[in-house]
Design brief:
Helix content is about 40%, strand content about 15%. By secondary structure, the protein is α/β, with parallel strands linked by helices. The protein folds into 2 domains: about 5-110, Rossmann fold (3-Layer(aba) Sandwich); about 135-270, 3-Layer(aba) Sandwich (Rossmann fold). The protein starts with a helix and ends with a helix.
Length: about 270
Amino acid sequence: MIRAAALCALALLASCGPPPDGGDGDHRLVLFGPSLTETVFSVGGGPLVVGVDRYSGWPPAADTLPEVGGYLDPNMEQVASLSPTSIHSVGSSADIADLSRALEVPYHAWSFDTLDDALASMAALDSMYGDGSDPAAAVRRTLDSLRRGSWGGSVALVVSHTPGSGSVTLAGEDTFLGDLVEGMGARLSAPASSAYPRVSLEGVLELSPDHLVYLLPDRPDPEAFGSRVEELWEGMGISRERVHVLTQDYLLVPGPRMGRTAERISECLRYWR
């Protein structure tokens, strides 16, 4: 927790900063979390954003804004200097909440853990700051379309795998990724032990997925890595045609581009039947 004296100093800093750009209202937003940034910009609220966390790089306009640190290590002085009219984060942060109280501005903590959480948060943000474009409805329409063409196979989603390691991290139930798979009419292969379980390679075989889809955003060597994991799993009895490596930057961000993630996964499932 931030000490009271430090909070008072930050509040004083904010009072000396630049005035808001316009009249009354919530029109200077500071955002912590790529899901929030992508959503607010997607609904037309980009001009209201004055600061984003270090991990928010899309759309490109967000990458030009002042950086306010990360969720776990927010730059409180920078936030205060931006004179925000509200502060938002993915998940609840005691430090950010304390700063919001010191600055006397609203603090909003949003959940994007599951698909339902993400869609509800997106709809609320559109209502508060958007143009009514309703990105949540667009994601639902994409899933409905994919479900109508689904073949109903099973897939294990690998979100982390160090080459040479004897285990992988999978997306599990009660995650937005697992919900996307179910929403498109496929079946998720994962233990129910946790949201993102660590599973041995032999444990993956026991799950008997029809496909293994790796979600590795911005992997610098996707072709070389793909060849390595294909060879690995082929040696364990899973044919290369059933192993896929995706590297798009949006894959692990629950936000307006979730429909694209679902489409990429669906393409992998259709590739081999």
